[in-house]
Amino acid sequence: MNNELNELDKAWFAGFFDGEGSIYTKVVGKSKYLYLRIEITLSDLDILERYKYFFGGTIYERKKYTNKKKCYSYIIGDNEYMKLFLENILNYSILKKQQIVVGIELLNEKNTNKKIELSNELKRLKNIVYAD
Fold first, then answer.
1. Rounded CA gap, 73 and 7, in Å?
2. What is the distance, to the nearest Å, from the Cα of residue 93 to the centroid of all Cα atoms in its chain?
């Protein structure tokens, strides 16, 4: 992982994330452990490799393809790498800025009830439709 990004790189990453990325929470197990996840799915593996180079994470080939084109998902699951990614693109994101702010808050939060509130806020923000 290399985190020496210039402003153009940050804007480039934010643009792709706004268009193709997703930030969401999952609840796991009986303990109801809540975690944040960032995912970008594209058919262009080179772009996802660039994300991985700067922010760590994992790339895997999707089993189902759209239009018979290979498709790949890039996932950041590590809290430190997610925070690095979100903080780097925050000032350049247009469509997902509020989701990014909530994601950073969630990564910093220790209180389980507050995490659940933030998770619900993130879900609400994902359902907002942006129009011209």
1. 25
2. 12
Q: Is the dihedral of CA 13, 74, 94, 83 positive or negative?
A: negative
How buried is 109 (Cβ within 10 angstroms: 0-12 exposed, 13-18 middle, 19+ buried)? middle
Distance CA 35, CA 22 (A): 14
For the full predicted model, state whether its pTM sits above 0.90. no
In angstroms, the Cα distances linking 9 to 1, 90, 94, 110 are 15, 13, 15, 31
Angle between helices 79-89 and 45-55 (to 10 degrees): 110
pLDDT mean by block of 10 residues, the chain; 132 residues: 80 95 84 85 93 94 76 93 96 95 95 89 81 50
Yes or no: is domain 7-126 CATH 3.10.28.10?
yes
- The domain ranges of the chain are 7-126
Read off the tokens for 29.
């197990």
On whether the CB atoms of residues 46 and 34 are closer than 8 A, the answer is no
Number of residues assigned to the chain: 132
Amino acid found at 16: F
